[in-house]
Amino acid sequence: MEYLFELSDNVVKSSRHVFRRYLFSLIPADQRLVIIKGARGTGKTTLLLQLMQSLETKHYEKIYISLDNIYFLENNLFDVTDWFRKQGGKYLFLDEIHKYPRWAAEIKNIYDHFPELSLFCTGSSALNIHKGEVDLSRRALVFKLNELSIREYLELSSQIQPGKFSLTDILDNHNEISLEILQKIKPLRVFHEYLLNGTYPYFMEGTSFYHERLRAGITTNLETDLPAHENISYHSIIQIKKLLYILSESVPFTPNISELSLKMGIYRDVLLRYLFLLEKSELLYQLRRENKGVSYLSKPEKLYLHNPNIAMALSPLKPDMGNLRETFLLNQLSVNHEVTFPGNGDFLIDDKFTIEAGGKSKSHKQISGVPDSYIAADNIETGSGNKIPIWLFGFLY
Question: Could you say which of 19, 59, 241, 276 has the lowest number of CB atoms within 10 Å?
Answer without folding.
Answer: 59
